[in-house]
Design a protein that fits this description.
Elements lengths: L2 H24 L7 E3 L6 E3 H17 L4 E4 L13 E9 L1 H6 L5 E8 L2 E9 L4 E6 L4 E3 L2 E2 L13 E3 L13 H10 L2 E3 L4 H10 L4 E7 L1 H12 L4 E3 L12 E6 L1 H12 L5
Parallel strand pairs: 3-4, 10-11, 10-12
Antiparallel strand pairs: 1-2, 4-5, 5-6, 6-7, 7-8, 8-9, 12-14, 13-14
The protein binds D-MYO-inositol-1-phosphate (IPD) and calcium ion (2 copies).
One calcium ion binds next to strand 4.
């Protein structure tokens, strides 16, 4: 993607994200229409739909040739990543949005022919914007993020995780995951995959592991983490397929191979 075009695309995407975020903040105490999707805990609200529609309407008007992959179904049904594709999660952390009115984000990744060119993650209530353009570094607000610590010790790592290490699950041996949790320094669960990837980029967490995420949960975060030298794959070490659901391991490359070999490929599957 041509740099001048990418710069203007980023400026436009950022302006829309900030505008959508301001709208959400202004309406944060308004009554919500809350529904469910795949199960009773998979929430969707009128605000998720309104925010996604805002992006789709603007993208279609300004960039009619671009394609859109988005969570609430107003985008395109894609079978390839050819061309320029906006991968949008209008509210990542809907459960936090509903129950806590904080700790949720707007997440937008813009990919060109399958390569992540732009990542934007906006913590709406904290008004913190994480962003990156490929090969131009990652930023928190306007401050460039430092490269990840190459000397990270496994025993001092903090990881973002969900409850899969507590519960029997299809993919990994939960007893090995319990060993993992006991070996690292600490684990955290923030409830927004996008923000958790941003925290890895910021260096306040050393990794994030999840068993079943969608492209819109991670598209922006992968670009941002990549710009500070972080690595993202599925739990087998294979690059993430942006057209499908996937497990996700994002971390400091210093520890990636050890986690896969010692904890993720030890039974199950
Ligand atoms: C969810 C959040 C959550 C993760 C779920 C996602 P949503 O996204 O990222 O942290 O554990 O798997 O589905 O539904 O709030 O956009
Ligand atoms: Ca999400
Ligand atoms: Ca969402």
């Amino acid at each position: 993607m041509n740099k001048t075009f990418r710069d203007s695309l980023f400026d436009q995407a950022k302006a829309w994200v900030l505008e959508a975020g301001a709208t959400i903040r202004n309406k944060i105490n308004d009554p919500l229409d809350i529904g469910t999707k795949s199960d009773a805990n998979d929430l969707v609200t009128s605000m998720d739909k309104e925010t996604e529609s805002f992006f789709i309407k603007n993208i279609r008007a300004s960039y009619p040739e671009h394609l859109i992959l988005s969570e609430e179904g107003y985008g395109d049904h894609l079978t390839t990543l050819n061309g320029t594709v906006w991968i949008i999660d209008p509210i990542d952390g809907t459960m936090n949005f509903v129950h806590q009115k904080r700790n949720f984000a707007i997440s937008i990744g813009i990919y060109h022919d399958g390569i992540g060119e732009i990542g934007i993650i906006y913590d709406v209530m904290a008004d913190i914007l994480f962003y990156a353009k490929r090969n131009e570094g990652a930023y928190k607000n306007n401050v460039r993020l430092a490269p990840l610590n190459p000397n990270l010790k496994f025993e001092e790592a903090i990881f973002g995780l969900n409850h899969f290490w507590l519960c029997e699950n299809r993919l990994v041996d939960e007893r090995r995951m319990q060993d993992f949790v006991k070996t690292i320094r600490g684990s955290r669960t923030y409830g927004s995959a996008a923000l958790e990837l941003a925290y890895v980029a910021e260096g306040i967490m050393d990794g994030y592991l999840s068993m079943n995420l969608a492209p819109w949960d991670v598209a922006a975060g992968i670009v941002i983490v990549g710009e500070v030298g972080g690595i993202t794959s599925d739990i087998d070490g294979v690059p993430v397929n942006m057209l499908d659901k996937s497990s996700i391991l994002t971390c400091n490359p210093t520890i990636q191979k050890r986690i896969i070999a010692d904890y993720l490929q030890t039974g199950k599957k």
